[in-house]
Design goal:
The protein is α+β, with helices and mostly antiparallel strands. Helix content is 30%, strand content 26%. It has one domain. A 6-stranded antiparallel β-sheet has the order 1-2-3-4-5-6, sandwiched between helices. The longest helix is centred in the N-terminal third of the chain and has 13 residues. The relative contact order is 0.16.
Length: 107
């Protein structure tokens, strides 16, 4: 069955269910081989990825302090941010800004 795309399938509720899996140890949690960061698959080819605490950013600092920070991403674009269970859907402009910062090494 082909994978369907589109942001309309990615709702805050679905992201929150994935977040609870990611930080609650549910089934379906995977790890990237190189970074060992955890992630959960989302609809439309997106993933919810835990924040890398080793990065030099304010979000990484929160993760180092024990806060649960994760990002919903698809094809390198940031779609949503979750901090301690609070989902913030990111607009296209903010998503592009985050992608640019990533390319610059600032995420």
């Amino acid at each position: 069955m082909p994978e369907r795309g589109g942001d309309e399938e990615l709702t805050p509720g679905r992201i929150l269910v994935a977040y609870e899996k990611l930080f609650g140890g549910g089934r379906g949690v995977h790890r990237f081989p190189r970074s060992r960061l955890r992630y959960v698959e989302l609809p439309g080819g997106a993933r919810l990825i835990e924040q890398n605490p080793d990065k030099q950013s304010g979000w990484a600092e929160l993760a180092r302090r024990g806060r649960h920070v994760a990002w919903a991403m698809r094809d390198g674009a940031y779609l949503a941010r979750v901090v301690d269970g609070e989902v913030v859907m990111l607009g296209e402009q903010e998503s592009e800004s985050r992608s640019q910062n990533k390319e610059d090494g600032n995420s």
